[in-house]
Amino acid sequence: MLRIPYSELLETLQRILLKVGLDRPRAALCGQLFAETSRDGVYSHGLNRFPLFISMIRSGFVDVHAQAERVSTSGALERWDGKSGPGNLNAYQCMDQVIALSRLHGLGCVALANTNHWMRGGTYGWQAAEAGVIGICWTNTSPNLPPWGTSEPRLGNNPLVIAVPRKQGHVVLDMAMSQFSYGALASYRMSGELLPVEGGFNSEGMLTRFPAAIESSKRPLPIGYWKGSGLALLLDLVAATLSRGCATYQIDAAAERESRLSQVFIAIDPSFAGQEYFPAEVADQVIANLQLPFQSADEHVRYPGERVLRTREENMRQGVPVDPTIWRQVQEMV
Amino acid sequence: MLRIPYSELLETLQRILLKVGLDRPRAALCGQLFAETSRDGVYSHGLNRFPLFISMIRSGFVDVHAQAERVSTSGALERWDGKSGPGNLNAYQCMDQVIALSRLHGLGCVALANTNHWMRGGTYGWQAAEAGVIGICWTNTSPNLPPWGTSEPRLGNNPLVIAVPRKQGHVVLDMAMSQFSYGALASYRMSGELLPVEGGFNSEGMLTRFPAAIESSKRPLPIGYWKGSGLALLLDLVAATLSRGCATYQIDAAAERESRLSQVFIAIDPSFAGQEYFPAEVADQVIANLQLPFQSADEHVRYPGERVLRTREENMRQGVPVDPTIWRQVQEMV
Known about the structure:
2 copies of one chain form a homodimer.
Chain A lengths: L1 E3 L1 H14 L4 H16 L10 H9 L10 E5 L3 E5 L5 H19 L1 E9 L6 H9 L3 E6 L20 E5 L6 E5 L6 H9 L9 E2 L5 E2 L2 H7 L8 H18 L17 E8 L11 H10 L16 H13 L1 E3 L1 H8 L3
Helix pairs in contact in A: 1-2, 4-5, 6-7
């Protein structure tokens, strides 16, 4: 496996983003968000997705000059138009805005329409937690998940992020409503592994642990069967209703483009009502209380976000693992 | 099956609540919330749970005279103390409050500590939707769900409710983080049915569809395995952090008492920014688009909340089904 220094990854991505037309501060932030995603071990939405992002810029699906704009406001609730700008910059800006709203009002919500794929959803959870607030956000997606009981993808797998700040390591959940995201299916397939549990139906409608069979049938399993199907529906409804943007059924399922998405960002300031408060203690005790004998002796109960910190530290020290083919492809874009 | 008129059920419950000490308006509302829950087909949390509720009043776990009080406020975010009052009255009051906050600020959030079991969570989703706003709420519970990979219940199954208003029938999701709630396990057991999918582990650690085996092992399966386990953890952390009340690990697992719970209520007004708006259209189209050939020919894709309306109509017309033993037991309390 090839590892490259984080700084080299970061500078390479930033130079390419400048070249395709982002202005300097936006190229810097956009490249940083991509590089941090690989640094944190979410390779599918970091470097590995960068070439698709560049091709979406070149084909006009992503407008590098577009900046999200506030359309309306009602105190703690705002509606924004992403104007088809870069999805990670739009999402970062909206989370920044709800953090500011939460300082003023206790909590804030921004509903964002017309945006592009936000890449790693967890990014905005970490962003909120770093600011000391609780962050909740989700996105809809193109149709990629059949409603429970059917075989045609009409729902999105609509990733949901919830983050709680903690001095010893933020707790950041980032999960799609399918048992395995398409990125996870691809990773299992490429490493030749079976899924640890059934992850969807094959084209014959049988449950399977073969990742490629699910990629080809486009029938991943919603978490909890009917429950994840229902939750995916509600996340889509709330996002489309509040943003007045597209619901999943209006989003082009073609390719992996994922444009015209709708997203919701919420931040809640736990130190509200003028009292100094950092929720470290309760979170520490809750997590300490989860430590139990684990099914395999060399593992333990991990809280969401725990593994990220370990991977981040390792990748900063040893270099960020990259797929040599993709890295070469990206280097040629500079 | 015995069916009784809704009005008879309602009046019986209200009379008993007066007798155990609730004042007139609170007895009226509390009885109504119980009766509506049975009317809507959620028998486990309506009449069937009423005797336990009365016994919790008699044993002092529920204080009929306690009224929830606001502890602090920060504009759109408030912290309330439930003072061990009746859980459904506390929850109803907090949802009412966030609906009011959402009219003022676009959205509102109340975190409630020291409350009791809220009975049917969906109640507060319907309440928000009836008011024309989006409702999101959840509760923690006593430890009843093992963290993924372990065998001891340390998480709660922490039901989550999301509701979107719609003229043709509100969309109301009400789901626990376990594949089957304990109420659902009991229903399957009493009807002698196997679960439709594996719902947990038996005492030997094997996945099973036998409801009684899971009731006895106390090892229900989280939805989506590690995903539902993570989501349950985050819901608990946010509720305990914001309310400064108990986290699941601090809640007495004994019996089914479920006191000292922490809950979060959020309402978002989709007509914010002074524009008339009812999200009927987008919700209608999203739901219409889900209609697909279903796995069994006599069924169709149901949206969350759809079955409730049918059951409600049937039960108002034909009477509310009651368990004869429980109904007799309740009648004797009058």
